[in-house]
Amino acid sequence: MTDQDLARGTGTALWSQIAERLKRDIMSGNREPGERLPTELRMAEEFGVNRHTVRRAVAALAEQGLVRIEQGRGTFVQESVIDYRVKKRTRFSENMLGHRKEPSGRFLAIREEPAEEAVAKALELRKGTMVVVVERLGEADGRPISIASHYFPKARFPSLPDVMRDCGSISLAMERLGVGDYTRKVTKVTARVARAADARLLQQSPNKPILMTEGINVDGSGRPVEYSVARWASDRVQMVFEPGA
Q1: Among 86, 104, 190, 215, which one is most buried in terms of CB atoms within 10 A?
Q2: Which CA distances in Å does 39 have to 54, 58, 59?
């Protein structure tokens, strides 16, 4: 790519020509999914334009869903969207492994707090009843996919914080605490603008919407054991409901 590639003075904006060249590279397979594009400075030098022109071209590709801009990391060719399957038994790790993605993540916080109205209603508790809250960042092949807030009734699982820190897994922690099998009762999905903190953790543009899911898991007797609120990177995940599975 050099400045001779651009048709100057033709009435077609330089940023549009750059965007079209990059798009052709992506669509033809010359740039692989997940590949990081050169820096703005590097492309500006190669095309003989200023960085603002390159930035506008990249922004146009991001709007088309061809690239993703990760704060502090760079710009990457967009990969295929993960079909996150919502079934009777929905587990993050199983979903990622089903797409040959390596599941990982980390706890952002484990704390106890009085249940707000929505949490209390979902867990069939009185408002203000103490709950255990687990905040977790979920990743696939090292890429952030979701930020989830999980709520559990403290009276039923008083040792949950210690067990969670020990095993590092919600499903394993529940098994240790006597709930070896729990199923999804309900899942709600909405879209909204990302909060600044969520956008930073998900490594996406602050003006890009996210998916938000609310879920209730119950034990074999139908008693709620967990209420979750998760925020998902909308350009990396789509929800696929399989109610009979």
Answers
A1: 215
A2: 9, 11, 13
- pTM equals 0.73
DSSP states of 199-213: HHHHTS-TTSEEEEE
Phi, psi of 25 (to 5 degrees): -60, -40
Question: What is the identity of the amino acid at 40?
Answer: E
Summarize pLDDT for 66-75 with one digit per residue, the tens: 888 887 789 9
Return the number of other C-beta atoms located less than 10 Å from residue 56's C-beta: 16
- 174: three-class secondary structure by DSSP: helix
Provide the 3-class DSSP secondary structure of residue 219.
coil
For 48-194, where are the alpha helices, taking DSSP H only? 51-63, 92-98, 117-123, 160-167, 170-176
Q: Which fold has domain 3-77?
A: Arc Repressor Mutant, subunit A (1.10.10)
How is domain 82-241 classified at the CATH fold level? Chorismate lyase (3.40.1410)
- Count how many Cα atoms sit within 13 Å of the Cα of residue 12 in the half-sphere of its side chain: 10
